[in-house]
User: Which sequence fits this backbone?
């Protein structure tokens, strides 16, 4: 099993998926899920199912925080204005995989579009 998916990493992901910086496990571009899918395609059935389950469990465990961070993160916040909670969020964002970063940007864009739609609507407030 490749290092990004060895038993140590799998156990850490099972224990707390949010605490693992999966983006740093596979190199510069951090495509952990993509690499995992390629490995799943190469493995035999029992190992492939186990790794596929780890990939799904990891995404499901990290997605709520990912969506929450995308709704509350502002790129313009100064370092002095960051609270300890935001430092935790910044730490989490720094460990995102490329797929998660794409989801993060899509969620931010969606929130902006909903806000613009809401503010431009004709309904009485």
Assistant:
């Amino acid at each position: 099993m490749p290092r990004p998916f060895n038993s140590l990493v799998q156990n850490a992901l099972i224990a707390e998926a949010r605490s693992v910086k999966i983006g740093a496990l596979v190199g510069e571009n951090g495509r952990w899920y993509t690499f995992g899918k390629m490995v799943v395609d190469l493995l035999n059935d029992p190992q492939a199912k186990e790794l596929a389950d780890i990939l799904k469990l990891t995404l499901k465990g990290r997605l709520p925080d990912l969506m929450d961070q995308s709704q509350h993160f502002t790129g313009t916040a100064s370092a002095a204005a960051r609270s300890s909670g935001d430092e935790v969020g910044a730490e989490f964002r720094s460990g995102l995989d490329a797929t998660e970063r794409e989801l993060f940007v899509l969620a931010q864009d969606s929130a902006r579009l909903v806000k613009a739609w809401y503010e431009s609507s004709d309904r009485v407030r």
